[in-house]
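Q: Protein A?
A:
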Amino acid sequence: MKCGKSSEYKLCNAIPEPCPKEPTPPREDSGYPLSKAIKKAKLPLNFCMSQCNLYDGSGDSGEHVYQFQTNMLLLQVSNVVMCRAFSTNLRKAEHAWFKSLCPWSIHSFAQLSDLFQKHFLSSRTRRKNSASLLNMVQERNESSSHYLWRFNAATLEIDNLDESVKYTAFLRGLCPTSKFAFVVNKSASRGT
């Protein structure tokens, strides 16, 4: 499949035939993956890139894109500026991936971020599910407040957590002899 504006985006080295090119780019532009329109667009005069962590391939690629977009939205910059700024947040090997994209093949930040996340998919953090909460228990000699803190931290890693599952898992994990478990169970039996 050829790359370019088609719905399928491929890396140059992943296809048998050469990438179709707009009129041959000048020598200094060869290998530049952003479209002519993006490359030629002017940056805002007051644009100052905020400090983002450089992506080194070891973290969650989706989280990196999210943090980058959040920073760019705070600066109120356009899709074009986001495209141009993104590669400045990549370390050496990850920047090599960016340069390996077909010349002039990127036309939007959505396309660029989609390709980035697909390429670095193995680095994504796996989200936990609600069943993982059922395995949490209050450790011997662990304070109830620490267990509550640990439990709440774990719930933040679960998407669309049902409140009844959360409540059941929390009660199930409490040490039955703790004062906190006694108070919670007493309140639950009264319906308060």
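Q: Protein B?
A:
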Amino acid sequence: MDPQQLRTLVFEKTGIKVDVDDPIFALVALNEAVLAEAVERHIARIDAASQELMQQLRQAGGQPHAVAHEHERHPGFTPAPAAGPVKPIATQAPLLVPRELRLLGAAALVALLSASLVLAGQALFGKPAELTPQQRAALAKAEKLDQILPTLPPATRAAVETALRQP
């Protein structure tokens, strides 16, 4: 906002002339004015609603009239027409309404489809790679060594096992 417009707005709302070089003060003053105005509006609404409730209570036979013309105390108050008998208010909502059930079912279906898609992808692409010829030859050599090693004399077997353990 333009500083001059802010200064004018603060003066209109609060009656305080602020220096254009002090925008923080202007902003604080404007916030206070807007807050005070909003509080006054809310208090007026709450007061009008409470007066309306008191009138409905009296019409239902709950309390005698405190003042003959209660609306004269508050010039902005206009009594609402009688709403008839008071209806009970629901204090508990149902656990799941039909719309929520549909949303829950759709979410469960999407979750199941996603899980099945992931599992199908794993089954399709998760197969181990084929062994290279060098790997197959090394495995065959290791199997032969495992078969021959127990048949060697103990001293030779110990020397071979020691040699195999070294990197």
